[in-house]
Write a structure and sequence with these properties.
Elements: E1 9-13, H1 18-28, E2 35-40, H2 43-51, E3 55-58, H3 65-78, E4 84-87, H4 103-133, E5 138-142, H5 156-175, E6 181-183, E7 185-187, H6 202-205, H7 212-225, E8 229-231, H8 233-242, H9 246-259
Parallel strand pairs: 1-2, 1-4, 2-3, 4-5, 5-6, 7-8
Helix pairs in contact: 1-7, 3-4, 4-5, 5-9
Amino acid sequence: MPSIDDSKTVLVTGATAGIGRALALAISDLPSHPRVIATGRRKDRLEELRKSKLETIEVNLDTDKNELKKFVDDVLQKYPDLDTVILCAGIQHEFTLTGPIDIDKVTSEININYTSVVTLISLFMPHFTKLATQGQPCFIVPVTSGLGITPGPPVPNYSATKAALHNFTISLRVQLQGTNIHVLEIIPPLVESELHDAEGTTEALSKFWMSLDEYIPLTMNGLRKGDREISAGGSLAALQKFEPGKIEMAEAFQKARAAW
């Protein structure tokens, strides 16, 4: 089974904090020594990663398709052997739906967590298709959330974006069956992260979250085994309770559609 150990060049979005940063560093330490490109918005964090021997690119994914295309074109020009993207960038806002909500925050959350991810996958796809047909395994790895399976009412829009990305990922995997492009999905539980700083909930959530030191080895194990769904903690429990048969039903739908 192809796995992250087969990757030569890995791009990680959202790599300046939390899960993205920890994964970028862990992947760079693999025995296969892949080249790791860390991307994010914060220049100081990118400089720290450069000192850790990672390559870095500054990018803000809360933008339009033209800017994302320029980003992808620049990446592929510099890294023509890129074979793996791990899509970690995300933002989370709390909303009380009984009163007025900030639609700009809603739009930004949808763009970063879902629209930009789908756009990047679409833009990288021709490149991956070419590499895959030449015999190089390629990997697309969206990072979703257990809240995409069982929503968290305080973060309704975040939960909805992750549910959308989770279902998109299943469809992508089914459509790419039989190719050398492999779709793995990372489905974290509540994990140590700065994601919650903007809402001021970090202190409260830190009493319940899984530490990065515990979470990252579990996730790296799944990536190295090539597991199609990589989860842990409460998210794994939700996946096992509510998702059995979902991928098989999607595969059946795809076969039925081909026969129409």
